[in-house]
# Entry
Amino acid sequence: MTCLLGSGIPKRNETGNDQMNLFAEIRTLVIETLNAMAAEGILPAGLELSQVAVEPPRDAAHGDMATNAAMVLAKPAAMQPRAIAEALAARLIADPRVASADVAGPGFLNLRLATSLWQDLIKMALTQGAAFGRANVGAGRRVNVEFVSANPTGPMHVGHVRGAVVGDALARLLAFSGWDVTREYYINDGGAQVDVLARSAYERYREANGLEPEIREGLYPGDYLIPVGEALKAKYGETLLDKDEQFWLAEIRDFATEMMMQMIRDDLAQLNVTMDVYSSEKALYGTGQIEAAIQALREMDLIYEGTLEPPKGKTLEDWEPREQMLFRSTAHGDDVDRPVQKSDGSWTYFAPDIAYHYNKVQRGFDELIDIFGADHGGYVKRMKAAVSALSNGKVPLDIKLVQLVKLYKNGEPFKMSKRAGTFVTLRDVVEQAGADVTRFMMLTRKNDVTLDFDFAKVLDQSKDNPVFYVQYANARINSVLRKSQDAGIDCSDAALAAADLSHLNHPAEIEMAKKIAEWPRLVEIASKANEPHRVAFYLYELASEFHGLWNKGNDDTSLRFIQEGNAATSAAKVALVRATGVAISAGLAILGVTPVVEMR
RNA sequence: GCACCCAUAGCUCAGCUGGAUAGAGCGUUGCCCUCCGAAGGCAAAGGUCGCACGUUCGAAUCGUGCUGGGUGCACCA
# Structure
């Protein structure tokens, strides 16, 4: 724990209450019914029911939900699937929640639910508000999400943005799903690159003192180090000017690293990303932590002195066999064993990484997640091997690889200047597109697929732009709420939840309610897969459903939300609108995007 | 040579961890809207899910082997 620079902010979730997930509820009904049938001897006892699923059918014409129970159980029960399905259907129909149960195809059981169920769901959304959809898959267990972890040698650039957003949104998703989440940043301040930073900063320090800086090849030429030089001058005056490197390297390294980290923290704040813990690589050295981690592996007979084979097919001209300390990662699924110590006896970069993950295991996390750039895909197996070994296979490590972002402007590639020191920074992106737009766009693709980001298109106010489309839906919702308020309808959630929702009976309205009903299920699925992008896609679908309902009001005035002279009907319809808004707000909160109340 | 990621409509991408006739947006085509709840709407066409086997009631999804693209492959972090 000594490597922690910051302190963790405890994030407890007030979980425990069962959320209304209609799919889970109906599945429970199906399971209970199957058990009852077994008790009566209709089905054999002791059937494995874990494969029984209740899911939305692909085609809405098939009903609201479908279960595969009959097909899954046919073989173990040694019965015809249709016979099971029919017997199950006859019993399910007795439940007031089930309006119809039809056997279809090879043995699917299609269920249509009572309209009142969807109406109740609207009520539930209004009652739960921001907590609507909150799940308990984490059950209070602790998960550590490590992301960004950019080298502290400069400002964050566009390549870091996606990882930052994915990591933060994933953290929010998991917290919403009942996990106790720690967001963590690993500062790579232990390697040669921070020495380069120090030398670069030293030149800027000389510059601040009126001397000509010598930005030699290999140093960081960026302007962002000029303020560091000035700060060094303010602190040290001219006292370091004529000194050899050995007198100032360590001091300036620490000083510059701290300033860089301050800059990175500011950059992250621009994106609405806040870390709970910053861990330092350097703090692992000289504290025995690396040695302890290696020792732990050694005691499992996973450390040995050996010589690696040269990689085949790859021509390495300067290859020479070297004996060094190796980690037997192949014992835990890796392809080759990995060096932890160089031939001169110093640690490789991998050694502190092992120690750092050992540290996370020791801090008692139930699960670890790392967000890496796709170019680090080669480290996945060895990292998993280390965690597997050091936790006795008890702590799973999930590593998400985040692919590149390609920048465009009006369809033209937005060239990054290769000239050292000038690149598109995170700040550039946020200043042009805004944090909300940037965050949403970064989640419109699965993490392992490259993403196109067009500075012009992301600000476009049209249906083509998913950010706008979702925000526009939310703005329309708020517009309806304002107008109904003006029309004398009480729009508080409590009042709307108390409305007589039996007025909601048009198929288009029920469809809207069904889409809202998917939200709790989606949260569950997305959090189990550690995939926050699913939330963005759901929001698009939800917005699409809402816009469709709105548009139907153009032709069919009975579908307009505010019905003049009919307060009861209006209240029911506005309740549906507000419930949609509840789901949109909950989803946007997970993405870390501020809902827009009004378009202009 | 090896490992990992990707491959789905003309284009950009989803696809519920194995479900029924594989979806959306753009683009294309055809209608509608200019009495504002139209910063548009409705509808249609468009697919050997890279290929081939396999697993089983059932595969875009899981396994194996290929093909094509990307990334990475000892003492660099």
User: Anything to note?
Assistant: Confidence is low (pLDDT under 50) at residues 1-19 of chain A. The radius of gyration of chain A is 29 Å.
